[in-house]
Specification:
Layout: H1 2-8, H2 12-32, H3 45-52, H4 56-70, E1 75-85, H5 103-106, H6 116-129, E2 133-138, H7 148-160, E3 164-168, H8 174-183, E4 187-189, H9 208-221, E5 224-226, E6 229-231, H10 237-249, E7 256-261, H11 269-277, H12 282-295, E8 300-303, H13 312-320, E9 325-328, E10 331-332, E11 335-336, H14 340-350, E12 353-354, E13 364-368, E14 375-379
Helix pairs in contact: 3-10, 4-12, 6-7, 7-8, 8-9, 10-12, 12-13
Length: about 375
């Protein structure tokens, strides 16, 4: 009985120990989010792990506090994503229905490049619906030389509408990244997907270092980096910790960080495994969002794949965790997304407002001499 009494009725000493533990915990959290620090604190792996282990309400409070120090409260950035070339990708990503390696089991119908005028029509619809960024994705391992004029034209045409532009086209070399930067591309998406140690369980046709090389090429060209992950592929929490730490190893954290919750697609190796063994807890996904917000305080943290399965309350928790960007529209490449009307309703109920677009100017502008009619190009300073 004495043991039971000690559990249910702590004495003064145990109460003091609890307070001391709480105070030291608060001091630790304050050190991670000190707004007076001249540069963002780069968290160690141990600090990232400690954040994941916090009580959820403490973690959400810290994440929302950090978020409000760097962004306008209750404002969200909205993007629309369009697949400009679908299917028959040579990569073997175990979660992706677009992989040519899984086409016999997923039965996904491949599609050729979409005509420029159809892409522009989709971009206009996205702008009219309230999106500020238009993202274009192609199922390539990397764009070919013949593809580059096409994607450069898309960037220029979409930017002419006053939208921010983002592309995800696979790997880029330095020359390709420069071409996209010269056209004025705002963001380039190239996800790390997971930790270095778990990566070989996800894809074998592209190395982790090749992903990092593309991100470095994008960064060096002056384009904003968009790089995130997919949680719920069977990875451990340690892998999620390592992924956040990998972002912090970069010279600068990505400006945009999509945190995807796996949508398990029947016929893909990882999808079939997750469907058989069970999906990751939504709260663990929300923890990952919150830790990403705290560790990357000036980055947009985006709700991406997996959102269509969430309740309003779960999405509200994700925004509380520091997410401030999401995809609009009924489809994300080949998977479903929350309906636009449902998103509008939820934004009204939560009191969220849309952020306006702020596209950057292209690096290279055509200039026409009025007297001679001769056209030249002017390279703008960054």
């Amino acid at each position: 009985m004495a043991g039971l009494l000690n559990i249910s009725e702590p004495n003064a000493d145990s109460h003091a120990q609890t307070l001391n533990h709480q105070n030291s915990n608060d001091d630790f959290l304050a050190s991670l989010t000190d707004a007076n620090q001249p540069t963002p604190h780069k968290h160690s792996r141990e600090e990232i792990a400690a954040l994941f282990d916090l009580p959820l309400m403490d973690l959400l409070l810290q994440a929302q506090t950090v978020h409000r120090e760097h962004f306008t409260a209750n404002e969200v950035q909205i993007s629309t994503l369009l697949s400009i070339k679908t299917g028959n990708c040579p990569e073997d990503c175990g979660y992706c229905s677009q992989s040519g390696h899984h086409r016999d089991t997923t039965k996904l119908q491949a599609e050729k490049r979409i005509e420029v005028d159809k892409v522009i029509a989709a971009a206009k619809r996205a702008k009219n619906s309230g999106s500020s960024r238009f993202c274009m994705g192609a199922a390539w391992k990397h764009p070919s030389a013949k593809d580059m004029p096409y994607v450069v034209e898309l960037i220029k045409e979409v930017k002419a509408l006053g939208l921010e532009t983002c592309m995800t086209l696979g790997m880029l070399d330095t020359n390709q990244a420069t071409q996209l930067a010269d056209a004025g591309l705002d963001y380039y998406n190239h996800n790390l997907d997971t930790s270095r140690s778990y990566y070989e369980q996800v894809v074998s046709t592209r190395s982790y270092d090749e992903r990092l090389d593309t991100i470095e090429n994008v960064r060096d060209s002056g384009i904003n980096v968009c790089s995130g992950n997919i949680v719920g592929m069977g990875e451990s929490r340690d892998d999620r910790i390592d992924w956040v730490h990998e972002l912090l190893k970069m010279p600068k954290a990505p400006e945009s960080i999509p945190v995807n919750l796996l949508v398990p697609i029947k016929g893909t190796p990882i999808g079939d495994k997750v469907l058989a063994e069970g999906q990751l807890s939504v709260l663990e996904w929300i923890r990952t969002i919150a830790v990403s917000r705290i560790c990357c305080p000036t980055s947009y943290v985006r709700l991406s794949a997996g959102r269509e399965s969430l309740s309003d309350s779960e999405q509200a928790l994700a925004f509380m965790a520091g997410a401030n960007s999401f995809f609009y529209g009924d489809k994300l490449l080949t998977t479903g997304n929350s309906s636009q009307s449902g998103d509008d309703r939820l934004m009204r109920e939560l009191g969220l407002t849309k952020q306006f677009a702020a596209p950057r100017a292209p690096k290279v502008l055509p200039v026409m001499d009025a007297m001679s009619g001769h056209q030249t190009q002017v390279v703008l300073a960054d």
